[in-house]
Structure to design on (470 residues):
């Protein structure tokens, strides 16, 4: 049996706990257990805290990694921001012994030490590498019959030098996972474009930030896409709640249901819309996603 | 200290070669052409790099510096391997130290000092968590006060609290004149 330390971050547990419930349910179905990381904090957001003060960013991120190391477990995350922060911090500490020493010096009192002996993974990697497309396909009991727009977000793939998931201009991992549920992943204009939330733009310039989102949603609508599937809790907030904000600010309505990848897979495995928290999203599910 | 030296100092975390790479920019403009933010605002990535090369300190107070979403598209495509997004983060660090941190950003930072989370929990989500069979309060700094203390120790050590202007007596942000 495989176990992961589930790093929750902020938006998953504090805004979209349906993502948390869906992730645990889907992983359990395939014999993968998740464990709490007691006392974990904000990752902290790579583009936001990294922009304010890189030293504070590295120390807080390193602390989160060390808490999982203490359990001897690899980390799984359900947010590109969390993944981005922890994976980058881990990468830096593995490459730079002087920073590792500095971190350890700072946490000596608390009995924490960075060793560099675990991996920080994104949920996409766990679904794709540990479970695999074939097993996911075999387990489908309620196939999804819908045209889907895949939204990869930015920090799972980039910077590719640090992430190591290959060419960030032509990824297929999310499309393959979507199609394993029976759905069709439809290409659309600027598919790999950012949702607009990152780097502190959502907090500081909501109007511009939502303009990114609006463009993506319009490009999806143009292709007859019926639902957005994302891989990041922050993108998820931007695409789901963002549609309400877009309506208020610009008077435009898209009404595109937004699901996190484990929520889509959860539906295909026979879990109900309610069990996956989908009935509590800002944009209501259409019949394609109601079970 | 010159702007270049200050940027290099930020290389202590990201690596000196990384933050130094703005020096080899050849002003081709591929970054601007790739930038989703530049499509909808007057923000021009190439111009920012150009001004850094010229040692132009007005970049630090320019709101355009905060238009980047850190999407890394330019970083991936730059033919000279200028680590643009990392450079932007480093320059923003300098701007923040000089007091050019916007109110919404100070607020986000203060949430982490107060709760350990940039986006803290609310009653609506607590209720939803319960309905989903999850513990009402997540097993994070929200549940463990000693963990929150550990985060507070860090921000005191790095003087992050002073930089954002967090007042420990009132547990809120000090009033600041807009810069
Ligand atoms: S793409 Fe690179 S070389 Fe070209 S202008 Fe931008 S930073 Fe300079
Ligand atoms: S990382 Fe920033 S500057 Fe570069 S393309 Fe993205 S938004 Fe533009």
């Amino acid at each position: 049996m495989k176990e992961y330390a589930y790093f929750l971050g902020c938006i998953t547990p504090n805004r979209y706990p349906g993502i948390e419930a869906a992730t645990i349910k889907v992983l359990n179905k395939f014999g993968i257990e998740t464990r709490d990381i007691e006392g974990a904090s904000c990752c902290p957001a790579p583009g936001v805290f990294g922009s304010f003060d890189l030293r504070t960013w590295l120390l807080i991120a390193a602390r989160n990694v060390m808490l999982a190391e203490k359990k001897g477990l690899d980390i799984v995350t359900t947010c590109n921001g969390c993944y981005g922060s922890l994976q980058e911090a881990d990468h830096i500490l593995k490459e730079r012994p002087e920073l590792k020493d500095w971190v350890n010096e700072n946490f000596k009192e608390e009995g924490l030490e960075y060793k560099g002996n675990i991996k920080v993974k994104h949920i996409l990697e766990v679904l794709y590498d540990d479970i695999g497309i074939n097993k996911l396909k075999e387990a489908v009991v309620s196939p999804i019959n819908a045209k889907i727009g895949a939204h990869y977000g930015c920090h799972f793939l980039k910077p590719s030098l640090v992430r190591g998931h290959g060419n960030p201009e032509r990824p297929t991992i999310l499309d393959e996972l979507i199609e394993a549920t029976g759905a069709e992943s439809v290409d659309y204009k600027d598919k790999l474009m950012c949702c607009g939330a990152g780097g502190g733009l959502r907090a500081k310039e909501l109007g511009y930030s939502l303009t990114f989102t609006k463009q993506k949603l319009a490009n999806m609508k143009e292709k007859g896409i019926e639902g957005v599937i994302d891989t990041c809790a922050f993108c998820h907030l931007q695409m789901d709640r963002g549609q309400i904000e877009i309506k208020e600010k610009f008077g435009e309505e898209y009404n595109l249901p937004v699901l996190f990848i484990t929520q889509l897979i959860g539906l295909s495995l026979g879990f109900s819309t309610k069990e996956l928290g989908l009935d509590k999203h800002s944009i209501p599910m259409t019949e394609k996603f109601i079970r | 200290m010159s702007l270049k030296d200050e940027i290099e100092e930020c290389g202590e975390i990201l690596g000196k070669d990384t933050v130094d790479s703005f020096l080899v920019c050849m002003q081709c403009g591929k970054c601007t052409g790739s930038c989703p933010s530049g499509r909808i605002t007057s923000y021009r990535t190439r111009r920012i790099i150009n001004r850094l090369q010229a040692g132009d300190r007005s970049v630090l107070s320019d709101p355009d510096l905060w238009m980047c979403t850190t999407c890394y598209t330019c970083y991936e495509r730059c033919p000279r391997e200028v680590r643009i997004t990392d450079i932007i983060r480093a320059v923003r660090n300098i701007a923040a130290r000089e007091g050019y941190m916007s109110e919404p950003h100070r607020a986000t930072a203060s949430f982490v000092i107060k709760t350990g989370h940039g986006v803290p929990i609310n009653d609506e989500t607590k209720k939803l968590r319960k309905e989903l069979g999850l513990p009402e309060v997540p097993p994070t700094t929200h549940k463990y006060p000693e963990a929150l203390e550990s985060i507070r120790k860090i921000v005191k050590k790095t003087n992050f609290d002073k930089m954002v202007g967090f007042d420990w007596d009132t547990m809120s942000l000090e009033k600041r004149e807009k810069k």
Notes: The beta strands of chain B are 166-167, 172-173. The pocket of iron/sulfur cluster (ligand 1) is lined by residues B 25-31, 46, 49, 78-80, 82, 84 (CB under 6 Å). Residues 112 and 118 of chain B are 5 Å apart (CA to CA).
